[in-house]
Amino acid sequence: MRALLKLLTLDVSDAELMRAQFNSFCGHIPLLYGILVCNTLAITVTSFDPQQIGKTLVSPMLISAVALGRAIWWLRQADAQQFSDAEISGQLKRTCILAVVMTLTFSVWAIWVYQDADGYARSNLTFFLALSQVSTVFCLMTLRAAAMLVALVSTISFALYFSWIDGGIMLPQALVLCCVCVGMAVVTHSFNRTFSELVRSRRTLHLRQLETEKLSEENRRIAFSDPLTGLPNRRELLQRLDQLEACARLGPNSLAVVFIDLDGFKEINDEHGHQAGDALIRSVCQRLSQQCPEHATLARVGGDEFTIVLETHDTAQGAQARALIVALRMLEEIAVPVVVDKHVLQVSGSIGIAANLDGTSPPRELLRRADMAMYHAKTQGKGQIALYSDELDKGRLRRLDIEAQIGGGLSREEFDIVYQPIVDAATGAIVSAEALLRWPRRSQGVLAPDEFIDIAEVTGQIHPLGLYVLERACMELRPFDDLILSVNVSPAQFRHPSFEKQVFAILEATGFPPARLQLEITESYLLANPERALNAVKTFKAQGISLALDDFGTGFTSIHYLRSYGFSNIKMDKSLIVGLEPGNKASLLVTGAITLASALDMEVIAEGVETEMQAEILRKAECHKLQGFLFGRPMALSDFRQHFRDSRGLAGQSLAAAAAQA
Ligand code: C2E
Ligand code: MG
Ligand code: MG
After folding, report:
1. Is the separation of the CB atoms in 474 and 514 below 8 Å?
2. Which of 211, 533, 535, 605 could form an SS bridge with 625, CB 3.0 to 4.6 Å?
3. Residue 302's domain spans which residues?
4. Is 313 helix (H, G, I), strand (E, B) or coil?
5. How many structural domains are present in the chain?
6. Residue 83 — φ and ψ, nearest 5°?
7. Is the CB of 154 inside a 6 Å radius of any atom of ligand 1?
8. What is the CA radius of gyration of the chain?
């Protein structure tokens, strides 16, 4: 009974199912009413009696009018979208109620007509009744409750009436009607189940489709944006550049590309860990975004690389000028210190700019050119801005050639080491030797170390080169008694997290005493990485290795500052020595620096001493050691060996002479 009641009740729990039912109705119900009107008219025609106008004409006309009215109303409801869920549920309920009312009205009217009809009219009536019932149920099939109610109401009323009239002569018809009703109920039920499943699976499909769309949107976002900063990544930027190329609206002259690379970011990552590096990148990116002008795309194209594509309606020169203003602003923003975990982190930026000055360069080419200009800015001392020019392209090609040749040169043993003596200022004896790298067997011609070392620094090839120099010099100079070996170390080598370990390993492998090794570093490294430098100096000092600051006087470091780092030696740059004359400003300056360094327990080595006069001034100023062409140019090991022996002999003589004089 409960199951039967459930079949007859309207289920309004599933809004989507209701909508689907409603949509299917909009097409079927007008048809249903059409059939009903036809059948009513057919019954009217076959059983019309002028004596009973109310029953055989007025009543069917009223039924037909109501049916037509409803048919027209349904025809107007083109789509369920215009109704809310509540309105649709109301419409379906109304349909169910109206289905029962109309069926009852029609049945009562038909029975009323049936009573006084002759045999011919009755058989017609029975035929049309059956037709109406089947077609109504058929049209209402998607709304199970309505279809079942119509079938039940019409069947019960006629079955009761047929089994009651004429002494039960119509009982077989009543039974057939009941059987048809059961059959229709079964078909309606199974159709309805299929319909509901269809709607449900369509919904599941739709949800899956939405999920897939969401996932693919998410994938797109991940593929085209940088997860750390949310900025467009290289792929997205390239796509944007291609769009700009395809876009006819913008002339090719209106683009400028600014390429930014952070200086010193790698060190921060190595020293403070990736989390600190990430925090720094986020902070820089936030400031860059704030400063990014309108109609510009800021993208993160690498670990510490950013690109700004400026779109302007200006000339190429105008676009370049604007890019320069943006770049200057960006340099300031990048240099703002960031505090992460109580550490003050600071980086600078190297920036390259390319605008379409020749009017023929596609956007991707501008990106390449800006990248190259940035690379040039980096080699010019960092924290700089460089504009692209054709010359850079040529220089770049040359650098690429040299870069490729360095690797091959190392494996073909094209490099050599020469030694330049450093003498004790008082005795003239060689007390140390500076190892200097040479590339004499380069097939394309000899290159000065300054030239290829700069390139090796940028490419990272300085690591194998530097270790080669250290190992070979340690091996070659080990037999030289107490001679100090001075080896140049590039900032890039010093930055390497395992540099200290590598140095200790070489000392162990070659058996070179750490106390005889001195590492020379330049002040640019100290200023860029004070914390890391301090730690490294401490580690080396703890092992007995001494450190010298090379090229002192070319930067801004004060002697006090160097002392705080634990440097034991300062190498005064040759640019300070070259102008020395008795009593001039340069000699006063150098003398003052030597006095101060000595007071702070640091030894001073003067580089580039070429004349006896310079040596004399330096000796008077009590400079500790001297280095320069006056005492010997950088020379091959065999020559150095001879030089060393001679110098030790001479030093012995001068010491003996001094003792005799005393
Ligand atoms: P540096 O460390 O300041 O080396 C001293 C430079 O001054 C050498 O140039 C030397 O030949 C030159 N010099 C010495 N005495 C005089 C002089 O009286 N007058 C003049 N005009 N010059 C003098 P070099 O060998 O061309 O090296 C240039 C720079 O290349 C070095 O400057 C150093 O920074 C770098 N370098 C050389 N070898 C190595 C190396 O093995 N590793 C690293 N990282 N850098 C190296
Ligand atoms: Mg040096
Ligand atoms: Mg030097």
Report:
1. no
2. 605
3. 234-388
4. coil
5. 3
6. -105, 150
7. no
8. 49
